[in-house]
User: Fold this.
Amino acid sequence: MIKALFVLLICMGFGCHIMAQNPVHYSDKVILKDGSKLYGSIVSWDVTHQLVLRLENGGECKIPSNTIKKVEQTEIGGMKKIGGFSLQPKKIYSSISAATLMGRSPWGESSLGGAVHATAKYALHRFWAVGLGAGAELYLPDQTIEIHSYPTYATFLWQPVTRLGIQGSVGYAWVGKGQNGDYSKTYTGASGGRYLAIQLQYAFNNHLSLFGGVQSSAKKREWIQTWDERNHGYDRYQHNRMALGLMYTL
Assistant:
């Protein structure tokens, strides 16, 4: 009860409008445990810490999560924005992600691997952020298509609603030496190429997101024929794969 009254006093001091106001002017309603109702627009809500409510006058009110009984929100595009993640302009965000990779070569061979990526982004607007990233993509052995790659890239994030975002990346993927070879060829080297990726992100809260997307990078591997070393050449191909994983943002 004391905490709830304390929150009310703080919010009133910052211009937060209480039940007497017409809720038509606001998109969200926060009901506290003492029965009081606050109206505004939710910026973010970390259910373990606090809810940030944007006021009509442009200010923000921070409400401890343990004083909240219920939150009612309008829908945007058929989806509630409760929880989720919101960009704050002029703020730097760092994130790390882990994903499973599943792909296929132009000649039909499948691939399975995993990836770890790290990015740093700067929020230009509450809907947009740009930054840089790097990662490592490793594949299971005995798959003749696979060459480990290490992409570096520029990235952007478009966050139109609190729960959903789209992230795209453009850069260059460095590669390892390639495989040991198969029964007919010995691989002697490899080189990388352009890297492209796009993914859809679903935010559970300010920190944890689920994502799925597609990636593509150019690869080249050099080889010598096993039974005649005078016969040599290279394979150049576009490696396309799907990614599914989790991302943690600070």
Residues 2-13 form the longest helix (12 residues).
